Amino acid sequence: MLQKLPLPASHCAIHVERFNPALRLCERLGFRQIDDRGVYLFLEWRGTDNSQAPTPSSQESSEASG
Hints:
By secondary structure, the protein is an alpha+beta fold. It has one domain (about 1-50). The protein is about 25% helix and about 30% strand. It has two helices and three strands, in the order E-H-E-E-H. The chain has helices at about 20-30, 55-65; strands at about 10-15, 30-35, 40-45. Strands 1-3-2 form a three-stranded antiparallel beta sheet, covered by helices on one side. The longest helix has 10 residues, at about 55-65. It is globular, with a radius of gyration of 13 Å. It starts with 10 loop residues before the first strand and ends with a helix.
């Protein structure tokens, strides 16, 4: 999804429930918290070009090797 964002200065904002296990995945993909609204954490990913957008397969392979 992140690789399909339009250029320039791509960004993506999402919200995740505080105790959702997907929060960790979002953080590994480069999302950073921008707001805390009780049960929801609002996250944002920013990139200057689509080559910076991580993919789940590239994340998994880098974790396995390192």
